[in-house]
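User: I'm writing a tutorial on reading structure tokens. Could you give me a worked example: one chain, its sequence, then its tokens, then a sentence or two explaining what the tokens reveal?
Assistant: Sure. Here is the example chain.
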Amino acid sequence: MKNIRIDWSDFIMEVISVFLGVMAVILVNNWSENRQNHKQEQILYQSLEADLESEIMEMEIILNQTLILDSLFSVYVPAVMSKQADTEGLFRFLTRLANFSSYQSKHTTYEMLTASNSLHAISDLVFLKEIITHYSQEAHVQQIDNRYAQFLTDQYEPFAVQHLSFADYFNPSDPKTNISNLYDTHTFANLLIGLQKFNTDRRNVYWYFKDQKVELLEKVQSKTVQND
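And here are its predicted structure tokens:
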């Protein structure tokens, strides 16, 4: 029986060739996957950028409304207490109070990532934590809007319906009409002071979250530039 002689050098070279071929395939696949993940992450950043820009714009509109209301409160609270409020202006002010705008968040990208369990698509874990924290805490905005609306419904509107009959007392030709008989001055003034406090609280909450969104937007934009 003949002994089979193995050429170990050829065998080793063949094993190395196979190994290098497998590694090359793995590296190419990894490179392709990383490239695809990079593209997907860029799309997510662009979507986040659009969401944040829209949310900031909406918050700025509401902030401007709260500032206008602040100036009106400073005029009409003392006027009501002195029973010398401008009837026409007071009517417009009360109408504005009852028709406030509430914030409608546009964070559809974050909701999509959460619903699909795809938050890991954002590779920067520190930045991901910031996003999660921000949108988790943003419920405070809706909560204060809901409390403000509830105060209007429970306290202001019933009083207005019962005591403020402007159809009977409104006289455009005499804008400084004494309206002392229209309402219980003390109760009405307290209602306005309560609404003024809610307006101040809303403004502070909106400012806080708007500033946070501006910071997040700048970080998203910087990441988009870095990865171009």
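What the tokens reveal: DSSP finds seven helices and no strands in the chain. The helical segments are 8-81, 87-98, 108-115, 125-137, 139-163, 166-169, 185-226.
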